[in-house]
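When time allows, look over one protein, given below as sequence and tokens. The question is which stretches look regular and which look disordered:
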Amino acid sequence: MKLLIVEDDFTLAKNLKQILINAGFAVDIKTTLENGLAETEINEYDCLVLDINLPDGSGFDLLQSLRKAKNSTPTIIVTARGQVEDRIKGLNLGADDYISKPVDSNELIARIRAVIRRNSQNSLPIITIGELVIKPIQHLAIIGKN
């Protein structure tokens, strides 16, 4: 299972990455909104672990952009911003879960597995015929790399 961590604190992101690798996940790290968004356009992930406070914008904006693009990658917000208003906003924008820092690594692993499990039960396979790629859940048909 492949995860993307979008977290501005590189030390924290590296520590989370190692914990998640030890739990059997493949993990990529991005430290900015722009790089995180670009990475989701290039690669598919089973889950996104997203911080809200990013140096070039808000993780809320990244999440909103993903959902607007019909990207339904399960997303868990992990942030220091634990106010009720922030939790409601994140969930209403399409996050699957919201955890306030500091987070217990075993709890995070369990929550990641839970959102991936729920998503896999609701997903349809991606169909590829030659250069044609059909993504039924996203209502997309793509020819070639465009």
